[in-house]
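User: Hey, quick favor. My workstation is busy. Could you predict this chain's structure for me?
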Amino acid sequence: MSLRKNNIKYFFKSLPKNIFSGFVVSLIALPLGLGLAMASDAPPISGVIAAIVGGVTVSILGGSHVTIAGPGNGLVGVILIAITTLGLENAYVAIMFSGALLMLLGFFRMGKLADFFPSSAIQGMLAAIGLIILGKQFHIMLAHKIKRPDTVDYLFEIPYTINDALHYGRSGLIYAAIAGIISLAIMVFYSKIRNKYLQLIPAPMWIVILSIGFSYYFEFGLHEPNPIAKEYMISGIPEFQQIIAELPTPNFSGIWSLSFWGSVLALTLISSIESLLSIKAVDKLDPEKRRSNVNKDLKALGLATIGSGLIGGLNVVTVIARSSVNVNNGASNRSSNFFHALFLVVFIVFFSSQLTRIPLPALMAILVYTGYKLASPKVVTKMSSIGKEQLIIFFITLILTLKVGLITGILGGVLATLIIHFVINKSAGLFFRNILKPNVLMYKEQDSKNNYHVSVKHFCSFLNYFRLKEKLGAVPETSDVIVDFSLCEFVDDTVMENMSDYQELFAKRGGHFDVVGLDLHDTDSKHPFASRRLLSVPNIIKKSLTRRQTNMEDLAEDYQLNYSSKHIKEVYFLNNFSFFKTKNIDHIYNILSHDESDIKLFDIEFTEGEFIAREVVRTTMIHTQFNQNIPKFTLDREGFLEKVSAFAGFKDIPIDNHEDFSKRFYLLGENETRIAEFFDDDVIRFFESNPYYHVESDGDALLIFGRERLASVKEIKALFDFGKRLKQVIIKNHG
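Assistant: No problem, here it is.
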């Protein structure tokens, strides 16, 4: 009860910030809603309706915390095709059906849908959407309405439109084009003005304010009509009472046509992908580090879309730009989404007549800028830096989307990715043999409350990433997680990008997320998201350092250590340790060492067993050399296996006056007397007050390691510190 009271108290305490944030977001949502609707050939008010219905519904029933719902950029092309082929009334029905499918995705817990699409294909699809928006609205921005059968034709027509704009004969068209150019300049340069008071009003709303002010200046200041041509002014915005009175009547006559269901599937696909990607991105911005319930959000978005289509609105999706503004203005819960919708109602009820004073080119300039951001050359540069194969996938998806359609484009991108993966690995069998196998094993380590180890086998790509995501989704972000890819033959860029996202998420929320096991994998570029494939010859010198090697290199610099990533096969110094009596050492690598010290930390690869029982093991160890002779022994944490070993003749050496130590630790060795002398009070106190490690002596040196897996950077620091301090204690007492 007290927790609920605290939540209610916090809600009312944060209410002013959420009201303010909702108001700021509504200033962006109003012009964007109008513009997106008109770009889709729908009535201008339909975009605002989507924002209002989405804001109210998702704020009450949604599973996210600081997202904003409304009409999305990605749906412009699909809705335009739906309205063109089906007619407006049938298009509203298609929107309602897509909302129902979106709800079903939520009920069937299909929030993982976006994980089945490779990152490069999604980027190609978004870039194509950007070009569709830019290509069609650029001409209207310059007061030059044209109709072309193909999206690419609109892009090729841009130079001719610019030329026509420079040679306009009608002053009305000149003023309309100037309004578009000034509005585009505001969108481009406004963000560079760093004034906290000025930026309380977003750039799109400045365009609205200046446009309306310009109209009133001519009407009341100069007593002249607005010089902008009437055909380039917003029209068809009804009064609020008229909206209620003229609700559209759904027309179900076209639901049996193939084009209808094609539109429904396209609307559902783009709505779900755009929403899921936006929710994922906004979760990173949440100052309270909460994780959204994406399936609950899909159900709310689906219900909102049904309601929106029923009363003449567009699809409702989660929108990233407006959500970012929401977070930046102090929003802390879903009430800001509700208030953004409430303020839109106020605008429509009291100021709908003022909206007709806005020039159409001014609103289209907002969309042209949005389209450019989606298809920016920086996106191509990023794809190229990740890998040339990503550029191929990107352009295949982009071209197919532009020339054929969104569904064909994304499916073409998926197929291209799969073929490229076959080529890179020179094997299709790797994927077909293992696609149905569970490839992820996660366990919580026994001696720690919050340590999780995740081992990934065979391959990890967009095809089966959902399995890894399911495991990681069950782990609190305050935990320590190690994801080990050492047994994985191929890791694609989609997975690498998601691992980077997890590292950022865990760091923000107080946890630690480390990726290990990629030192033996090759990559064609230095980009951290580049695909990784296991090298056929392990000791090939890599072109670039992996993330782990880079981290260890940084660690060496911080601790003034020497670092080498080379594979060293001369490991004779390990041969006398009993741990390796039945194991074959292949090589050590990633070596950290002191100039003046005999302490060496390294990753090691060794094998156990032979033939079908052969297992490759990679772990992290520290080797400490002593100048004096020390007794041979093995020290481990006492557990069930150690107690069973006693029945087989492996006797635990007791230490007098230290019963707790003898209960907690399992000590083996032949020379019991000398070992008992070596484990004096200081040495025993050191082991009792520090984490458990396997410690072994060969008479001249100590070998220390934790678990039989690669250590994370955090664990490497702890291991190195443990080995260094243990050596100091031994030298002090037995030097």
